[in-house]
Amino acid sequence: MLVAYGPDQRTVIAGETPFTQLQQWSRNHQLYCPNCRGVVHIRGGAEKRTQVHFAHQKGECAWSTEAESIRHAQGKLVLAQWLRQQYPQASISLEKRLPEPNRIADVFLQHTNRQQWAIEFQCAPLDIEEWKMRHQAYRKAGITDCWIIGNNRREKQEAFIEALLVTNRELLFLDPLVNPPWAWLRWPITRQQALERQRVPAAEQAAHPQSATIDGWVGRTGYGMTILGTLNEIQLDRQARLIHPTRVALEQRNTLLQEMETATAIDEQQLVDYLRPALNDATLRLFVIPLLHAYRLDPELARRYNYGRGLPDQPLRPGDQQRIDKAGLWLRGLVIHGYTQEKLQLVIREFPFAGPYAAFRGYAETLLALASQR
């Protein structure tokens, strides 16, 4: 355990109290279990290369459990500090004994409005029925239970982890043994969202290793997105939902994508809003918006031109040839601004493949292909 009572009956947290002071109290038998009030002793420390903690003599306390792992002990300390930074006005306790629902929460938080959260850091396998019992007991007691999983279980397909994902629509895996602590935020996405993300070039994903990547959903079916970063990049909002700036931006973009899928015509501002997280203002101004204006004037130009062949029932028009030549000159001229053919290809890959916007993307790809042949 990480929490005990000291000689003045005040809470003492292992790792937050000078080790020499803990040793003195331990020798004087002045450390007490917060549950059974029995004497506990200090264990671990730098010399033993284990997390500082308190322990009973074997079998003394009905509330005591098997020895916890270093990962679990350190994780509780990390999570408590993480929550204190976000909610300095809240009351935050480690290993809080809760008479109702008759459990000890790894980390317990009570807001000033009396809202209560129990943060459970689960590093060991957990039977699905046991998880359901704990989850329902917390909710019955009016306590929001938040489950965070040790990174040692990140690649495991366990029923309780799948149930967490189905219930909360998100998962957080934590490695508390590194500094700063690393976290993996995962949530389910639709097939369309997965396809859109897979269109991001591999080189671009490699250049941003902390961006969101397609990852296996912990379950038998479905798609998942994972963000790897530090724990401090993530916040737990007032609804006990996990917030990460990258996830917020992606979800806003996905909302736009759904609207674009059912649109009847291209909306310039909607397209700009969708592309802005991926493209800078110069790219939008110099390339995307002029190209969109040209497309709106004659959306059938590339189809009629048909790579210089015209249509079977409609020979190539001289005017179309002139316009294609002019478009090619414009595209090749963008190189003076740093937009090579390869860079323009990457830009076009960001265009949405949805509703009427898909035809615009095809138009842009065709014009670029024609320009590269000259």
UniProtKB/TrEMBL annotation:
<protein>
    <recommendedName>
        <fullName>Competence protein CoiA</fullName>
    </recommendedName>
</protein>
<feature type="domain" description="Competence protein CoiA-like N-terminal">
    <location>
        <begin position="20"/>
        <end position="62"/>
    </location>
</feature>
<dbReference type="Pfam" id="PF06054">
    <property type="entry name" value="CoiA_nuc"/>
</dbReference>
<dbReference type="InterPro" id="IPR010330">
    <property type="entry name" value="CoiA_nuc"/>
</dbReference>
<feature type="domain" description="Competence protein CoiA nuclease-like">
    <location>
        <begin position="68"/>
        <end position="161"/>
    </location>
</feature>
<dbReference type="InterPro" id="IPR057253">
    <property type="entry name" value="CoiA-like_N"/>
</dbReference>
<dbReference type="Pfam" id="PF25164">
    <property type="entry name" value="CoiA_N"/>
</dbReference>
